[in-house]
Amino acid sequence: MSDLPRKAVSRTARLAALPLGYAGRSAIGFGKRLGGRPAETVMTEIQQRTAEQLFRTLGELKGGAMKLGQTLSVLEAALPESLVAPYRQELTRLQDSAPPMPTRTVREVIARDLGPDWADRLVWLDGGPAAAASIGQVHRGRWHDGREVAVKVQYPGAGDALRSDLRQLSRLARSMGPLMPGLDLKPLIEELQARAEDELDYQLEADAQAAFARAFREDPELGRQIVVPDVVAVGEHVLVTEWVESPASLASIIEAGTREERDHYGELFATFLFAGPELTGMLHADPHPGNYRVLPQEDGSPGRLAVLDYGAVARLPERGLPDAMGRLISICLIEDRDDLVEGLRAEGFVRDRITVDPDLLLDYLAPFVEPMRQARFRFSRAWMQEQFRRINDPADPAYTMATRLNLPPSYLLIHRTWLGGVGVLSQLEAEAPFREILERHLPGFSPP
After folding, report:
1. Of the N and C termini of the chain, which has fewer Cβ atoms inside 10 Å?
2. Nearest 10 degrees: CA dihedral of 263, 267, 268, 269?
3. Residue 432 in contact with residue 379, Cβ under 8 Å?
């Protein structure tokens, strides 16, 4: 029996308690303020306890609950420091950890998927998990040919838990808003729902990972920078891949990395995001730092970057990122207002019969293309927080402009992945040659 809480009533009750818990603590906090406690001190206490409850619950439930927590952890750099500081420790912890599944359950799932002779091929399996995530956990093992392997095993009941959680979280999205002030949870949850079935399909994941591994291995330059482990075996609920020996993930670099490490791995991270679609026709759409492992050189200096977990992958209809995406960024850089409006309208970003002021539109978009104006751009939490503030402040013209723009369905996952990628780069405070990366890997991009 898995330790994954599987009863829908129990999971629903725990998720429903999250906004109620926040409301209760706020009421107690109001009493403390009446008693003379400073408002800022009381609010910090409320946020700290809310963060602990929120992310402990999301992590323990796994399934869609933990998936939402991982998504939020990527975007924390957008929130004002006064709001996010109490959350950061719990968010970072969630990126790399989750409660383990019993060893007996692991072996039962492997036997069911790989057959009764599985131990003849998987000759050694570590009893404890090396990593755990929203719908499965990873154990280290050894294949019969001597290769060290990573064995990913899906939690029994993970599919039902994932679907149930996301339905419940969608219903609670509005009332959960105060838990993460300024973030609109509903579209995030809807996007997670849209790709839930793909993430449960380990054969689909194996096919994607094999394609990425082959493409990066065969590219002479990128193969020296990016490592994608090969697929060894796959079943309905088990995926075996080559093991990657790494001392840390990007989450550790975010927490305590040197300036050299932040810049180096940030550049490789951005390169992978844009080179992947060019080489494979697919977009790795789960940029949270736990999926990226650092591989230092023998002397300890920064080395290659390994990329794991291909459950969330977008198959791009144009066999790569849209050519229009690069063209529109280029038009924005040269500040051609009329072409910008026309191009955005042609792609569906400006709907028919909606009028926009070209000057205000350019002002709205200018900060977002700022990283492409310079040979090297340093991302930072302060920069991302400022962009987030602009589009969430009703007094700022950018807020009004944002309400007049539309995000076409074909760009939804690209947009979320790009936003998440910028969030990670901002957490890293990385300086990267972003313009050069786009020139090499983004179709249609030709800066002045």
Report:
1. C
2. 100
3. yes
